[in-house]
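Consider the tokenized backbone below.
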């Protein structure tokens, strides 16, 4: 019981120290608040505005500007743009979070294996990743979507594939350093299995840069999804994904600029929030940071 309490108090002290360092970056704290608001909007979208407002077409209200009745105005079919932006946050955030998490898991398995075992395992994994890295991520995503088809599931797969090589390289580099530490040699001397050493000792002690990279990659994945949807290779209408909303708005750029403004601002602020929170995590997790 005493050891458990000591462990909990140590973790609490570590968290408080992390939070103290994070709070020093006021911009990151502000963006964390924005990020919480965006995530809350996605989680409680149905409570904020019914989904029916996304698909309800009122011809008399088409292409209206922002008003009390329609906070963000209406689109070319008279659908409420505020409702479509709110519910579109679910698609954009789902893609960003799901692709980053999947790329993290795949990258952790491959990168940790390459860095820990070395030799032919490292050579095989690294050469395969080099082949994928030779293709620009957006072109790789386009190729996968073109081969599999345009829907949400295939879009997530395509963006994940394009994100994996970078994760593998990062995790391999941090594992190479962590695998040389004394605690790894001590674990080996006790006959601990390689899998347990990697996932119990090596990766947890290399999580700082991995967490920062994953957080900042979410914005890249959201922008990739928006870009693919914008050119018609991502989420298809009438689903209210932010990139798809921008694609629909380009026809009405001068006659109804509000259709472009609000989805664009949502993409901008969410991407900026993830990036700046990632900067704050970099400072908070950096042991060399001076007080």
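A designed sequence for it:
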């Amino acid at each position: 019981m005493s050891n458990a309490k000591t462990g909990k108090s140590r973790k609490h002290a570590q968290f408080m120290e992390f939070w103290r360092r994070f709070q020093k970056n006021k911009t990151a704290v502000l963006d964390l608040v924005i990020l919480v608001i965006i995530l809350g909007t996605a989680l409680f979208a149905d409570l904020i505005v019914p989904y029916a407002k996304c698909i309800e077409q009122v011809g008399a209200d088409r292409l209206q500007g922002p008003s009390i009745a329609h906070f963000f105005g209406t689109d070319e079919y008279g659908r409420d743009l505020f409702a479509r932006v709110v519910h579109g946050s679910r698609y954009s955030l789902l893609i960003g979070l799901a692709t980053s998490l999947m790329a993290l898991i795949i990258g952790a398995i491959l990168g940790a294996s390459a860095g820990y075992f070395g030799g032919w395992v490292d050579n095989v994994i690294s050469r395969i990743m080099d082949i994928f890295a030779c293709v620009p991520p957006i072109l790789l995503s386009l190729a996968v979507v073109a081969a599999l088809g345009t829907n949400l599931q295939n879009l997530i797969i395509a963006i994940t594939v394009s994100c994996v090589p970078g994760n593998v390289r990062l995790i391999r580099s941090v594992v190479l350093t962590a695998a040389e530490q004394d605690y790894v040699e001590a674990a080996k001397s006790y006959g601990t299995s390689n899998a347990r050493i990697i996932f119990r000792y090596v990766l947890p002690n290399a999580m700082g840069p991995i967490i920062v990279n994953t957080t900042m990659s979410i914005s890249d994945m959201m922008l990739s999804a928006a870009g693919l949807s914008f050119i018609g290779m991502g989420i298809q209408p009438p689903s209210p994904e932010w990139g798809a909303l921008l694609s629909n708005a380009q026809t009405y750029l001068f006659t109804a600029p509000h259709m472009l403004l609000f989805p664009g601002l949502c993409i901008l602020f969410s991407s900026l929030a993830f990036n700046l929170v990632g900067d704050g995590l970099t400072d908070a997790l950096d042991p060399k940071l001076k007080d």
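The chain has a mean pLDDT of 83.
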